[in-house]
Amino acid sequence: MARVCQVSPATVAHWIDQGLLKGHKTPTGRRRVEAAELVKFLRTREMTVPADLRDALGRDVVVVVDDDHAYLQALTKTIEKAELGVEVVKASSGVDALLEIGRVRPSLIVLDFSLPDLNAVEVIERLLEPGRQLDAEVLVVTGGIREEEARRLHGVGVKTIVSKADGMTVVIEAIRQALRRQKAA
Questions:
Q1: CA–centroid distance for 6 within its chain
Q2: Residue 135 β-bridge partners
Q3: Which of the listed residues 51, 93, 95, 158 has the most CB atoms within 10 Å of its CB?
Q4: What gap in Å lies between CA 141 and CA 56, rounded to an integer?
Q5: Per-residue pLDDT for 37 more than 70?
Q6: Domains of the chain, start order
Q7: How many Cα atoms sit within 13 Å of 80 on the Cβ side?
Q8: Residue 90 binned pLDDT confidence (cut-offs 50, 70, 90)
Q9: Number of Cβ within a 10 Å radius of residue 173
Q10: Whole-number average pLDDT of the chain
C-alpha cells in the first residue's frame, strides 16, 4: 500500500490508526486493507488508482487531455455523471499526457488536437515509438481541424474525431462507443 500511495509504511499505519483508511491489524501486528477500501480512500482524496489495483477491480481508466482548463473540468465532470464506470485522469499538455498514459495504462485517451507543446499527432507518434505499446484507443476532440490533419490522425490509428462544437453529449457517446470497442477487443 505504501508503494501504491507513494508514502512510507508508517504513514499508511498512521492513516489506519486514525481511522482515515479502513483496515485491520493481523494477530502478528501487521495492518491489512481491502482493495475496495484502498480504492475508495484514493478516490476521496483525488489520487489516481494504480493500474494493477484498477485491473483487480475491473475498472477502466480514461485519460482526458485538454489545455483549456474550463473544458477539461467540464468534460471530466460530465464523464463522471454519465456513469460510464471509469476513472478519469486529467492532463493539460502533451508531455503531461505522455507521463499519465505511461503511469496509468488507460483504456481510452480523449485528446485535444491542439495542445501548447505537442499536437495530437505528435503525442500519438511518441506513443507508437519502437519499444512502446499503445493498447488504448485514442479519441480526438477538436475545435476544428483541416482535412489534411484529419488524414494524419487516421494514419496514426485514430478512429474517431469529434468536434467540441457538437456538444458534450456527442463527446460522451463517442467515449461510450470507444469503451465498448475496447471491451470487445
A1: 18
A2: none
A3: 158
A4: 30
A5: yes
A6: 2-47 (no CATH), 59-184 (3.40.50.2300)
A7: 12
A8: very high
A9: 13
A10: 86
Per-residue cell: 127: 506513443
Residue type, 156: V
pLDDT(56) > 60: no
CA distances 155 to 26, 128, 130, 150, 151, Å, are: 55, 12, 17, 9, 6
pLDDT band at 74 (very low <50, low <70, confident <90, very high): very high
Look at residue 30 and give its three-state secondary structure: coil
Whether the Cβ atoms of residue 34 and residue 25 lie closer than 8 Å to each other:
no
Helix locations, 61-146, DSSP H: 69-81, 94-104, 120-127
Residue type present at position 169: T
Confidence of residue 168 (pLDDT cuts 50, 70, 90): very high
pLDDT confidence of residue 29 = 73
Burial of 178 (0-12, 13-18, 19+ CB in 10 A): buried
| 55 within 8 A of 40, measured Cβ to Cβ | no
Give the integer Cα–Cα distance in Å for 87 and 106: 9
Cell of 70: 474550463
Pairing of strands 108-112, 60-65: parallel
